[in-house]
Amino acid sequence: MSWVGERLWLLWCFFWLLSLVVALSSPFEALRWWAGWKKPPPLEAEPESPGEGPFGVYLTGVAGFSGDFLSRRERGFLERLAARVPGLQMVDDVFPYSATNNPLDGDRLLRALWVWLQKWRLRVPNNVFDLLIIMHNIGQTLVSSDRRYGPAYNSGVARAVAQRLRQKGHRGGQTVSLITYSGGAQIAVGIAPYLKRMLACPVVVISLGGVYTDDPGIRAVDHVYDFKGTRDFILPTLGWLLYPGRWRLAFFSPWNRARRSGKMTWTACGPLTHIGAGDYFSAKRQLPDGTLYAEQSAALVASLLRE
Asked: 215 in a domain, yes or no?
């Protein structure tokens, strides 16, 4: 093997070793917070006057980096949505892949690594090192769905969401719509029971290409609206493949009980893909009638928020 080949082989092995470390350490953040070793951010003052709403929370997909960072495409989608729903109180700065709303560039042991990866990702999109960020967030999604660690993780995320909603003027009772993309759908279902308890309000999940597990939190969701592109079938199917509670044979699972109760609505929304130029946030691809994919996504979600 040549010198270059040896170095590439070592780099590849290091990458997968680091990926394994990231995956195996996934539950520790939630457990540190639950045990009181990791303090969540202090609660901020709430506004004096209540907001009218509607109230929405956007939970990004597994490529997310922090609550303050959203891709231009996602930001464009949220701007289109706000233009269609006057008075919308939107929370879009909660990082759903941390039990303490701690971004990857926050107070972390591997902060320097995550910052370096993010800079590299912004410079060269879709490079192989993107996978480390994605694998970290997938690991947190799996923690959310886990029967042992999920309650600690989900209650932490719900706390951050509830705090931000109160700052937006939510005073309890008003419906909260969790608008999600990809793996954010699982986080939304996981936090639903805790959010409902904290705010005493109905919780609706609206997903674009949502990836769901068989999380029992589905029992607390008042309705699930899932929009999927006809070319988006690989990643959303993973939840069905990996979690037997979603199989039709698991007749009495929380997922199948919710499905039979009629509180799940699936809608096909054209030839959209999960990621890439033809995804739900695309401002370049058009439907046959000339509607941009991003415009359609905003219109579909807005129609539910206005109900």
From this structure: yes
